[in-house]
Write the structure tokens for this entry.
Amino acid sequence: MIYLDYQATTPLAPEARAAMLRWLGGPDSDGFGNPHSAHRMGRIARAAIEVAREQVAALFPSGGRVVFTSGATEAINLALRGTPGAGGIAVSAVEHAAVLDTARALGGAHILAVTAEGLCDPAQDLPEGTRLVGVMQVNNEIGTMQPTRAWYDKARNNGALFLTDAVQAYGKIAVAEADLIAISAHKFHGPKGIGALWVRDGVALSEVQTGGGQEFGLRSGTLSPALIAGMGAAAQCADEARDRDAEHIETLWTRARTLFGDWQLNGSADARWHGNLNIRKPGLDVARLMSDCRAVMFSAGSACASGSGRPSHVLKAIGLSDDQAKGSIRLGFGRYTTRAEIEQAAAQINAAAGALGL
């Protein structure tokens, strides 16, 4: 099989797997202790968590703290629900459902428009009394990179906090300046089930999940040393491999753009992470295409929304018709993708599209 769905999840880095093994310990190991226990095994587990916290924090801006969560969805909920004070929330139209649905559930959400290239223009007005602005750094469906610095400044000038979903950016490019930043480990070759919310110093959040008061009194629940150690190792590996990974992905992008030269690109070609190729053909039956290319793992949109039968809200937001949105596919590649895999996948996808008369 050829895996081209890096926006949905990434292969676990060998370094992350190795870091996790001790903390999956059985009865003959010292690695199964509860990190919140006061005895020696608890302190050993707690020390591993704090080492990983430093590894994860190293890729964030300075002047903040890392709060571990079960993933980016929980981190986003903590940021949106835990932000104190009255006022509305303004978020871009192409945010992940974790942001859009939560903002709407809280009431009074203002949706910020995007251009046909998938960019959210910071020149647009914020409603009076906005308390929090959410604009993601790199879009998970089309890969567009938002002007987050300008949005951060605009939010501050309007007395609001700025949240960015950096799930698709962390470990690949420099993380944006923000007050609150959400990430998920399995998007940068860490394990599933662990993520984090970075909170700028001086930003006070209310506890959303009550219980034992772990994680600075913001997120109760027993932490997993194994998952956190894996996340820390993946973060360190991403930091060390960033330039090499970026060069490799650029090579793959250039080759893929040639191989899919007669497909239409969705979103900006310039303000974009090049590990995401979202393309379309008129009249394409994506379900049939995926059935005919079963050995190639690619996506028709966000993994979180797959199976809904609805056109992508991201593609609709950039002005595509229902047919255009439903005729789009997303190819995601990264560190462990080879040039040969891109070429083999392109041959199969193009042949299948040709068999459909496209």
Remarks:
- Residues 225-259 form the longest helix (35 residues).
